[in-house]
Amino acid sequence: MATDPSPGLFTLIWRGIRKVCPVCGRGKLFRSWFKMRDHCGVCGYSFEREEGYFVGALIVNIAVAEAWFFVLFMVVVIATSPGVAWGPLLIVALVTNGLLPVVFYPYSKSLWMAVDLAVHPARAARGGP
Ligand SMILES: [Zn+2]
Fold first, then answer.
1. Distance CA 81, CA 84 (A)
2. Where are the beta strands (DSSP E) in the chain?
3. Cα of 59 to ligand 1 centre, how many Å?
4. What's the gap in Å between 18 CA and the centre of ligand 1?
5. How far is the CA of 83 from the centre of ligand 1 (A)?
6. CA 116, CA 1: separation in Å to the nearest integer?
């Protein structure tokens, strides 16, 4: 099976966005929205990681939710100032900050794996961690 031995960061990020194997770019990472596969069905790369590995994905997920809230807050405050629409802002912020981490969950894991593989390319050669 021919796979790119050292995909670049943008290729890895693109694979993370598509939720496919960071090594070959073809095998799917997830069985369902929350359930990750054990290994790649195409190249055999192991998706199993040591305990605590996906804390980085959690940090990515929280950072995206916080960034979203910051953008939302700034846009609403600037657009409605001086009579800031605090009520609608609160409702939209609560709803979106509740849903975004759930929607972004698999992407946070796949993007974390992609960035990790960019930093530790030897993992691909070993077939996993
Ligand atoms: Zn693969």
1. 5
2. none
3. 25
4. 13
5. 53
6. 23
